[in-house]
Amino acid sequence: MKTLTQYKHEIMWWMSRITIMLTSLFLSMTLAAQAYAAEIEMGSNGNLVFNPSELTVAAGDTVTFVNNDLPPHNVVFVNGHDELSHPDLNFVKGDTVEITFDEPGEYEFQCEPHAGAGMKGVIHVE
Q1: Most CB atoms within 10 A, among 19, 43, 111, 124?
Q2: Distance from C-alpha of 112 to C-alpha of 103, rounded to nearest angstrom
Q3: Pairwise CA distance, residues 31 & 34, whole Å
Q4: Of residues 1, 21, 81, 114, which has the active-site annotation?
Q5: Among the options 15, 86, 111, 124, which is catalytic?
Q6: If DSSP codes are grouped into helix, strand and coil, which group holds residue 76?
Q7: pTM for the full model?
Q8: Degrees, nearest 5: CA angle 66-105-125
């Protein structure tokens, strides 16, 4: 028959293992969330817009552009930052483009086929 002390040691052993697992899970979710900042829809509610059209993120964050309504769409940065542009057209709903912003600044972008309709936006990187 086990004594109370033996049960106490077994409970403490299990508690330490559970604490380690929960801490590992929390850290992995926290670190993964830091890389992903936001999602921007290309075309929203039947309109030729980026939603949201203005966004603020931290340097090093990744923004995912998701092809939504009224394709084709692309993401082209104006006033420099050509290296971040994705001029190829996305035709399929759900197609994504991920862009990581390493440097602070203002990043103005547009959809080339629909810029005349006002499909433009800006990302502020702090």
Answers
A1: 111
A2: 24
A3: 5
A4: 114
A5: 111
A6: strand
A7: 0.71
A8: 50
Each domain of the chain, given as residue ranges in start order, spans 35-125
How many whole angstroms separate alpha carbon 115 and alpha carbon 78? 11
**Chain centroid offset of residue 48 CA:** 21
Structure tokens at 76: 């082209």
Q: Is 111 an annotated catalytic residue?
A: yes
The answer to whether residue 15 is catalytic is no
The pLDDT tens digits of the residues spanning 41-68 come to 999 999 999 999 999 999 999 999 999 9
State which CATH number among 3.40.50.360, 1.10.1660.10, 2.60.40.10, 2.60.40.420 fits the domain covering 35-125. Answer: 2.60.40.420
In the block, tokens 């921007």 appear at 40
Question: Using an 8 Å Cβ cutoff, are 111 and 70 in contact?
Answer: no
User: CA-based angle 117:50:33, to the nearest 5?
Assistant: 165
- Residue tagged active-site, from 9, 21, 29, 73: 73
